[in-house]
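Shipment paperwork, digital attachment
Item: protein structure file
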Amino acid sequence: MRFLFPIASAMALALLATDAGAFSPTALVGQQRRVIKQTVALATEAAMAESGVPPETADATDVAEAVIPTILPSDVGMDYIPLATMLATGQLAEADEFTRNALITLAGSKDAGRNFVYWTEVKKIPSTDLATIERLWSKFSGGKFGYTVQKKKWKQSKGDFEVFCRKIGWTTTDGEVERKKRWFGASEFTYDVKKAPEGHLPLTSALRGTSLIKELLTHPVWENDDWKKEPEN
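Attachment content:
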């Protein structure tokens, strides 16, 4: 996974800051924001170095200027700062993996000894957590990625999974044969906000059928727009 050292370092600094107990709640939040901002700067610089783009010539949109939120509600104590940091720094493959693993934990699948979610378990995923995940994907993709975007595409496809996959770029062609893209081994998906079609991420496996994604896209949290509300400080 790319750029884990800057992220891990920032998280360690934040923990050291809280352990000392010398900060007021207001000062502590400020300290966490400064640490996270440093993380974004380090990871962005690493990303540009890896891509061969000189920092002085990088476009402003390539630098994660957005403030990473530190109030990220979870009904089960899940820490979403890593997800926010990955998304803010363009680590979309890592953010996608984090999201998938989070759902496995939230649905209770991990406790059951499985590394995948049964469609019948989706209803166990707390709305609070799904809303937090969705706000982060939406925020750092400019509204291009997220389950609510996929829900819109699903509706446009009239529930036809094949049409849905074409709309969000989950298919490719081998010669004249259309097939689903692969994410195992060398992933064929597009982890780039500018290049990927709307709704391309996050990914949901359909190896065991389409019931899982149908349940995710019809979760009660999407019945209204309350998920968009930012939590108060």
